[in-house]
Amino acid sequence: MNLQEALATSLANLAGHKLRSALTMLGVVFGVGAVISMLSIGAGAEREAMEMISRLGLRNVLLRAKTFEREEAQEIRKQSPGLSLRDTQAILDAVPGVELIAPKVEIDPWQVIAAGAKTQATVLGVTDRHRELASLELASGRFLDGMDLLAHEQVAVIGPAVARDLFGYEPALGRDLKVDDVWLQVVGVLAGTGSESDSFEGVSIGSTDRVVYLPVTTALSKFDRDPLDSPLSEIVVRLASSGPGTDASGADSRTAARVIDRLVGQLHAGAEDYELVVPEALLEQSRRTQRLFSLVMGSIAGISLLVGGIGIMNIMLATVLERTREIGVRRAVGARRRDILEQFLVESFAISALGGAIGVLMGLGIARGIAASAGWPTVVTPWSILLAVGVAVAVGMISGFYPARRAAELDPIESLRYE
Fold first, then answer.
1. Model confidence over 171-211: pLDDT tens digits?
2. Three-class SS of residue 117?
3. Strand 155-158 relative to strand 182-190: parallel, antiparallel, unpaired?
4. Which end of the chain is more exposed for a tag (fewer CB within 10 A), N or C?
5. Per-residue CA distances from 314 to 23, 85, 174, 265, 319 (Å)
6. Where are the beta strands (DSSP E) in 252-340?
7. Of 383, 365, 314, 364, nearest to 27 (Cα)?
8. Distance CA 303, CA 350 (A)
C-alpha cells in the first residue's frame, strides 16, 4: 500500500465513524483557531501601535502641561510659571542632539463660526515646524510659515471636517472664520486622517480632521487666557538621527528625556506642573504587554492542542484494538511492520490535518468577528496559519506514533486469533 492508498483508506475510516472523528478533532480545531485568532489580534495591535507611535514620533520627547484645581494652581504658580518659551530656548541651548523643537498652545474656544455656520474644533497655536513634526499633509493651500509667526498674522490652517462644517463643499482658502472674538483667514486645508480622536497607552493623540492651527505667537498675544494656566500646552522635542549620544538607531530618546526632565525641573523650581512622554518608552511598554498577552493566549492554545493530541492518541489506541484482526491478515499476506506503522501514522496525520484546516477557518472567523464587533484591528498573516497548522500536524503525528508502533509490533498469529 502506497501513501496515496493509505490516505484514502484513512479518510474512509474517518468517514465511517463521523461522530467519533469529529469529537477527536475538537481539541485540534480549538487549538488552531485560538492560535490564529490570538496571533491576528497581536499583529493588529502591533500595527496600530506602530501607527500611533509614528504620529507621536519615535524620536520625539513630549512635555505636556498638567492641569490643576484653582487653589492648587495658585500654589504651583508661586514656584513655576508653567511651560513657556523660556523652556524651549533652554532645551535648545543645553540638551545635545536636539534637531528641532516646537511649542504648542491649546485654546479652549467657546465658538468657531464662519458666515452663519458654526462647529466644534480643537484650536492650537503652533510653529511653522509643526507640520514636519506631525507629518501633516495638505489638501490645498499652505501651512504656517516663519513670517506668520514674526508678524503675529491672523491666519489659520484647518482640518477637513472643520472646512466641511463651516464652508460646505465650497473652497475654504481665503475665507474667514472666527475663533472667539478673533478673525482668522484660512490659508490651508489639511488632508483627512479618517478618525476624530485617538489615544495610545493613555496618551491622547489628537486627530487633524477637526482642528484649527494658527501661529503660536498669535495665540499667545491675541487670545485671553487664565493667568493660572501654563503659557504653553505642550513642547515637542525631536532628537537628531546622528550626533552626540546616538547609536545606530538614532538618538537615545530615554536618555535625552532624563536630561530634559532635570533641566526643566530646575527651571520650574521643582514644581511638578508638567509630564514627560517618551513615545519610544510607550512602544516598549506596549510590546511588553503584547508579549504577556501572547504568552497567556499561547499557553491556552497549547493546552487545547495538548488535549487534542491526547484525544488522537486515545482514539488511535482504540482503533488499533478494533482492527487487530485486520492487522494480522495484512501481516499474513506479506505486509511489513513498516507498512502497518505508516498506515496508522497516515491516519493520525489525516485527523490532525483535517482538524487543522477546520481550525484555520474557525480562527479566520473569530478574527473577523472580533474586528467587526469589538472594533479591534486584526491582521491574519500567512506565517501564523502555517505555524498553527504545522504545530497541529506535529502534535497529531507525535500522538499517533505510539499507537502506530504498537500496531506494527503486534504478533501476526495472535492478531489472527483475536476476536
1. 899 999 999 889 999 999 998 765 544 544 444 455 688 89
2. strand
3. parallel
4. C
5. 12, 74, 78, 67, 9
6. 274-277
7. 314
8. 21
Query: What torsion do the CA atoms of 89, 93, 94, 100 make, to the nearest 10 degrees?
Result: 70
No. of H helices and E strands in the chain?
14, 16
| Whole-prediction pTM | 0.60
Q: Is the per-residue pLDDT at 97 higher than 90?
A: no
Report residue 118: phi and psi, to 5°: -145, 160
How is residue 208 annotated by DSSP? S
376-407: pLDDT as tens digits: 778 888 888 888 888 888 888 888 888 888 88
| Separation CA 42–CA 36 (nearest Å) | 10
CB atoms within 10 A of CB 199: 10
pLDDT score, position 289: 75
Residue ranges in 196-235 assigned as alpha helix (H): 216-222
Own/partner long-range contacts of 282-288 (Cβ < 8 Å, ≥24 apart): 282/53, 282/56, 282/200, 282/201, 282/203, 283/49, 283/50, 283/53, 283/58, 285/201, 286/45, 286/46, 286/49, 286/200, 286/201, 287/46, 287/49
Residue 24: strand, helix, or coil: helix
Angle subtended by helix axes 337-373 and 279-322, to nearest 10: 140
Contact by Cβ (8 Å): 120, 144: no
Look-up of cell digits 489628537: 206
Radius of gyration over alpha carbons of the chain, in Å?
Answer: 33
- Grid coordinates standing for 82? 508653567
- Residue 246 pLDDT > 50, yes or no? no
186 vs 49: which has the higher pLDDT:
186
Closest CA to 99 of 283, 279, 251: 251
3-state secondary structure of 175: coil
280-315: string of b/e by CB count within 10 Å (b at 16+)?
bebbeebeeebeeebeebeeebeebbebbbebbbeb
Tell me the three cell numbers of residue 115: 458666515
Which has the higher per-residue pLDDT, 246 or 97?
A: 97
What is the number of other CB atoms lying within 10 angstroms of the CB of residue 2? 9
* C-alpha span between 253 and 267 (Å, rounded): 21
> Alpha-carbon distance 310 to 269, whole Å?
66
Return the C-alpha cell found at 255: 536618555
Distance CA 202, CA 64 (A): 13
